[in-house]
Each structure stands twice: as C-alpha cells, then as structure tokens.
Amino acid sequence: xxxxxxxxxxxxxxxxxxxxxxxxxxxxxxxxxxxxxxxxxxxxxxxxxxxxxxxxxxxxxxxxxxxxxxxxxxxxxxxxxxxxxxxxxxxxxxxxxxxxxxxxxxxxxxxxxxxxxxxxxxxxxxxxxxxxxxxxxxxxxxxxxxxxxxxxxxxxxxxxxxxxxxxxxxxxxxxxxxxxxxxxxxxxxxxxxxxxxxxxxxxxxxxxxxxxxxxxxxxxxxxxxxxxxxxxxxxxxxxxxxxxxxxxxxxxxxxxxxxxxxxxxxxxxxxxxxxxxxxxxxxxxxxxxxx
Length: 291
What we know:
Elements: H1 3-41, H2 43-50, H3 52-60, E1 67-68, H4 74-103, H5 109-145, E2 158-159, E3 164-165, E4 171-172, H6 173-190, H7 193-202, H8 208-213, H9 215-229, H10 234-269, H11 274-290
Parallel strand pairs: 1-4
Antiparallel strand pairs: 2-3
C-alpha cells in the first residue's frame, strides 16, 4: 500500500465525521427556519404576550398600554425578532436531539448515562430562568422605570417652573422588545450555571473545595455580571445577584455530591485508598501546624 493510500484511509473517518456534522447542522437549520416561519405567522399574538408585564404595570397606574413604531420598517423588524426568538425555542428540542445523535456514538455507555441528564436539564433551567425574568424581574424593572413619569394623579400636566410639563411614557415597540429579550436571555443563561459547573465537576475540571475557595472572587464577578446584563436600576441588579449567587452555592453542593458518588464508586471498585487519603490529610495538617 502506498503512502498516498495510507493517508486517504486515515482521513476517511474525519471526512465521515464532517459529513455527519454537516447533515446534523442542516437538519438543525431547517428546523429553526420552520419554527421561525411558524412564529412569523403568529408574531402579533406572541408580541402581545410579551407586552403583558408592561401592560400590567401601566394598568396599575391607570394608563393605556400603547407602544408605537418610530420608523416605517420597525413593525417588520419586531416581527422578525419575535420569529427568531420563538423559532429557536420551538426548534431547540430537535436541535438538542441532533447534537446528541452526533456526540452519542463516540461515547461509552457510562459516559452517555452521565451526559444525557445534563442535556435534559439545560433547556429546563433556561426555561426556568426565562420564566423568572418574565414574571418576576421584568414587572419590577418596568415599574421602576415608569416611576419617572411626570403627570398628576388625575392625568393632568405637572406644572414646571416656566410652563406646564407632562412627561408620559410612549415607548417604541422595538426598544421594549429588545429590553425584554435581554432580560429573558440573560436570566436563562445565568440559570445554566449549576448545569455547567456540575458537568465540569463530573469531568474533574472543578472541585467543590476549589469553588468554595474562590467564592469571594465569584461574588465580585457576579456583581459585575449583574451590572452589565441588567438596566441601571438597583432592584433588578440585586435580584440577579441574589439569584446567581444562590445558583453558585447550589453548584458547589451538586459538585460535592458528584465527588462523593465518585469516591464511593472508586472505593467499591478498590481503587480508592483510605490510608493514602489519611496520610495526605495528616501531612497537610502537620504542614499547617508548622506554619
């Protein structure tokens, strides 16, 4: 067999994997486009649903829920953005299935059993975070923002120093949609933290002790994250910080459980030496005592 034949034979599996990846990507894109087309046909009801937090806050203040288009093409782009978001949510289960079918053949049975729960938990946690943002955080944020309007209790204009002044919310539909989607996506991604850290703990990339030792740095990072992904109001920033930090502590607990189960399994198989562990802990204690 010539050297050229050996090179061709060795490259064949790579070509097959690339072809398989291409097919999975094509199926995923087609599913996304179909979901997007379906959502485009019902873009108005979906947008009306997304405006529920704002309309409720305005209704509590005795105002009408009126959003406007500030450019001729804004209505079209609003429908496109609604379609993109809805299409992705509709197609995500199928996209996740395509990802699993591409990765699963290269995994051992035990690895499949370890990876599959995380694949199921990821969309669940995203939906949980998005729901929390939509039903809890978004109404609080809009209530805070609309508190800066200037009009009397009966709707009369507020009298300024020189002339009657009335500053009333008359929002752009596209700007409202952008802010709402930002809330939904930000909280949905933040709720992936336990899934990500637990998966990394399963792979041995992080440990519960290590996560606990960098807790103070995690607090700073979460504060920076809250300032970046939320509007400049204290309420939503505090809520995001409390939620993400709580998820971080939950992640430490889950990683510790993964480590405990791993140790129990190794001990049952005879690979875990308790005497070596005791000697290591004693040496560490002597070193700290000597300091």
